[in-house]
Design goal:
The protein is α+β, with helices and mostly antiparallel strands. It is built from ten helices and 19 strands. Helices cover 21% and strands 31% of the residues.
């Protein structure tokens, strides 16, 4: 085997990662170790589990049962003060005028050139307080830097807020045991403030799995082990398993991953997210003029779904080149073998002329060139509706 063909991060060939004080440990770190975490990555300056031995087994637990993820590395940015809404409007091209308290929105964060700084879930906790939950990247520093230049009456800080994700079709059964009727009655992309055994939490109907799910935001890090154990105990009868954010399911659902899929060079139109860009909204926002120019020019690059021929691919450790007539035209951002589809699927960043469904591509993989085709996405739609019989299924 050529050395470039080695999958260095497969479970059986995973390099060690040194644990030390320079990188922060999650409040759930000890719990994940007790439950068998086998590998970690560094995400937002914090250790995050990447698998517990077999990512494919975790995938099946996610799509059939229920899983618990340590995602405390999603550093929650608290934006609070009389000008909180005006400041939040400045960071995103999405119109926030119809965002009441205890509602979540998926938002894009753009810079002065219209480039994608990040994507995030925005939670409006109160009229004057927002929580911003972005992907990897120092968004808190970016937001604080902007805040110092605006003169607005707003505080921007990283909160002591530590999320877990409870994801999978049986997650509402576990949430019902933990939080009662409120867990089933909350709408998709809603958030509530509550307590569990005296622990202060926010709970939202959100997640990065494409399956039914919740995010549990612990508001005091010292109780991390206690919350983890409580949720795992509640989920035992539903075959709950510890898991990491799952690459297979996220690609199947076309859920974006910062820096893999999203780069500063890209803009919202690259991802077909025009619906999240209101160029005419009343509130000013960073990148408005640039985005108007980009939209007027058109012919921008696209992130599209592709299917790749050949033997199963575990995943790509780097961008794989897409070539046409011997010239590099784009790259595969992420790809993987889907056990349900029984084919290799992925996301590719391409010029507009190659992005139409049915377009034939050549991808340079470590084992040589492979043919690929642009296909319709997502392969599996996001699950949003909680079945009406959950109460009966829990036995309560």
């Amino acid at each position: 085997m050529h050395r470039n063909d080695v999958n260095h991060t497969s479970p059986e060939n995973c390099p060690m990662i040194s644990i030390g004080p320079r990188v922060r440990k999650s409040p759930y770190f000890d719990a994940t170790m007790r439950w068998g975490a086998k590998a970690f990555t560094v995400y937002n300056h914090m250790y995050m589990p990447t698998h517990y031995g077999d990512p494919v087994s975790e995938y099946w637990s996610l799509v059939n049962d229920v899983t618990l993820w340590d995602v405390s590395c999603q550093r929650q940015i608290v934006i609070k003060g009389p000008d909180a809404k005006r400041f939040m409007e400045l960071l995103t091209p999405r119109n926030l005028s119809d965002c009441p308290s205890h509602r979540c929105l998926y938002v894009l964060l753009t810079d002065e050139n219209g480039g994608m700084v990040n994507d995030a879930v925005l939670m409006r906790m109160h009229d004057d307080e927002f929580w911003l939950s972005p992907g990897d990247g120092d968004v808190v520093l970016w937001a604080q830097g902007i805040a110092t230049q605006t003169g607005m009456d707003v505080q921007v800080r990283e909160g002591d807020i530590c999320p877990l994700q409870l994801q999978g079709p049986k997650s509402p059964r576990v949430a019902y045991k933990l939080f009662g009727d409120a867990a089933l009655e909350m709408g998709y992309y809603h958030v509530m403030e509550t307590e569990l055994n005296g622990l202060k939490l926010a709970v939202s109907r959100t997640g990065w799995s494409g399956e039914l799910g919740y995010e549990l935001y612990l508001e005091d890090h010292i109780h991390g082990n206690e919350l983890w154990d409580t949720v795992m105990e509640a989920g035992e009868e539903f075959n709950i398993a510890p898991a990491a954010p799952n690459t297979i399911r996220s690609i199947e659902g076309c859920l974006l991953s910062y820096f893999s899929d999203i780069r500063r060079l890209d803009n919202p139109f690259t991802f077909g997210l025009d619906r999240l860009v209101d160029l005419d909204k009343k509130a000013d926002f960073l990148g408005r003029d640039a985005l108007r120019q980009i939209q007027a020019r058109g012919n921008f690059r696209r992130l599209v779904g592709i299917e790749i021929s050949g033997e199963p691919i575990s995943h790509n450790e780097a961008f794989w080149h897409v070539v046409e007539n011997g010239k590099r035209t784009g790259h595969v951002s992420r790809c993987v073998w889907s056990p349900r589809l029984e084919r290799n699927i992925g996301l590719a960043n391409l010029p507009a002329q190659q992005a139409a469904i049915g377009s034939q591509l050549t991808v340079h993989c470590p084992d040589g060139p492979r043919s690929a085709e642009v296909v319709k996405t997502p392969w599996f739609e996001a699950q949003k509706i909680i079945p009406p019989d959950i109460r009966e299924q829990t036995g309560r």
